[in-house]
Known about the structure:
The structure holds two protein chains of two kinds. Chain A is mostly helical. Chain A has one domain (2-241). Chain A is built from twelve helices and two strands, in the order H-H-E-E-H-H-H-H-H-H-H-H-H-H. In chain A, strands 1-2 form a two-stranded antiparallel ribbon. In chain A, strand 1 (43-44) and strand 2 form a beta hairpin. The longest helix of chain A is centred in the middle third of the chain and has 29 residues, at 92-120. Chain A is globular, with a radius of gyration of 18 Å. In chain B, the strands form three sheets. In chain B, strands 5-6-7-3-8-9 form a six-stranded mixed β-sheet, with helices on both faces. A four-stranded antiparallel β-sheet of chain B has the order 11-12-10-13. Chain B is an alpha/beta fold. Chain B is built from twelve helices and 13 strands. At the A-B interface, helix 1 and helix 5 of A face helix 4 of B.
Amino acid sequence: MTELTYLRYEVLRTWRNRRFLIFSLVFPLILFLAIAGPNKHVTFDHVPFPLYYMTGMIAWGTMVAVISSGARIAAERNAGWTRQLRITPLPTWSYFSAKIVCGYMMALLSMAVLFAAGTSEGVRLDTVQWFVMIGLLLVGLIPFAVMGIMFGHLLKVDSLGPAIGGVTSLFALLGGSYGPLIRSGFLLSVVKFLPSYWLVQASKTSLRGGAWPLEAWLVIVVWTLVLSFVAVRVYERDTKRV
Amino acid sequence: MSSTSQELHDNIVAHDLTKSFGAVRAVRGLDLSLQRGSTVALLGPNGAGKTTTIDMLIGLTKPDAGTVSLFGRTPSEAVKAGMIGAMTQTGQLIDYLTVHELVTMMAAIYPAPLDVEEALRISGADEFADRQTRKLSGGETQRVRFAIALVADAELLVLDEPTVALDVEGRRDFWSAMRAFTARGKTVVFATHYLEEADAYADRIVLMSRGRIVADGAPTEIKATVGGRIIRATLPDVELLALHALPGVTMVDRKGDAITLNCSNSDVTLRELLSTYPTVRDIEVRGAGLEEAFLELTVDDEAP
């Protein structure tokens, strides 16, 4: 139970950091309202445009949420705080999982706001479809949550902002968050190796009433494993140096 | 070194601890046994190896060689059991929390923490408990870090130069808080480069220089060794032996007409010097300083 108290304060800290909200929530919301609003009745890539764009913006905002949360470790390392924690009984895993929980919490908030905005722009899904979509999004975010922790041990505080901004924008862009740039051919098969592509596809998948194809699950699992491996290595390197 | 298991269980034992950073041999074969319930000062100039020793004791730094046993456990076992509360030399606090919230958060990590209000009160952080951590001064931050070390209510409290950021008053408050804590029978190890602090608050002083222990004993003993002053003066034609016979003199040196007296009690020496040798002139008295005392103590040591 004691670790729940620890977690509670981590959540409180995340909530109070308003900068966090702007990038994971306000920006995607503004972009959604500006672009989906005027194109309410368009059908796009076999789905209603507002639904496509809502999922795209959710993919972008939630990626920012889970990556930023883990990446805050960089600031805490810089402040000597992780060193302080290493002489407490708090297991490293609990420290990391608190960061992941906070990232997911912000991600859920970002989702809720965009669902509301989407509904107001005419997005209609039945209950099962909502749940399938939410479930796929939560699973698809796992590699990005791990990436955040990796960044937390890899980056300096100064480079955090640009790195997170750049990486998330690139994943969002290639994954089709802002609109499907790549719709066929060889490049599409390359883009399908990105977890962000499958995040954006979550809405289409749920509309068809099914889950992801096998290749989507493989992409998520492989990215998670590879990023976890790197994260553990950079964590070990970081703690040995002290 | 043969320790019975009972001794191991009761004490903090470091055996042959060694650590180098590149070409710098920070700690060189340190042997140390500290009794449970004692307050021990690691005293030495910058670069003596105090911080490295402390970091190895609490498991933050892995020794190149040697072992540490904290009440019969390895440092990482002791950390996991919540037996260590520590205030490292540097470190900031995390933000977006008030002081009270931060200390509560840290208390939650320990199996049997001190009451949060009490930790705040002892450390003096209760005066600004509701303030955001990023709005604290250096001295206030230091008090919160002390509260965090205290709230663990750990068997061993380790403080690495805890008063470095504090002014004179802050220092006095800190140590009176410390006294209140040690009265509870906990073991305290602190590093300092102030002889006065070590003398006033430790039952035992371990003097370190260049990665080794150069003296180890009760404060009175250590003070007699390193706490002296140096008198320099011009005094021609005097026997070294006669100078050595002056009260309070521990060491004598002469270069031409210039004499140097190391004194344990310079006031007495000076009075006697002036009355015995009225021709003495150019008198200069100054604190010997730890650095000089250390040089003296390690003069027989081989080169680093």
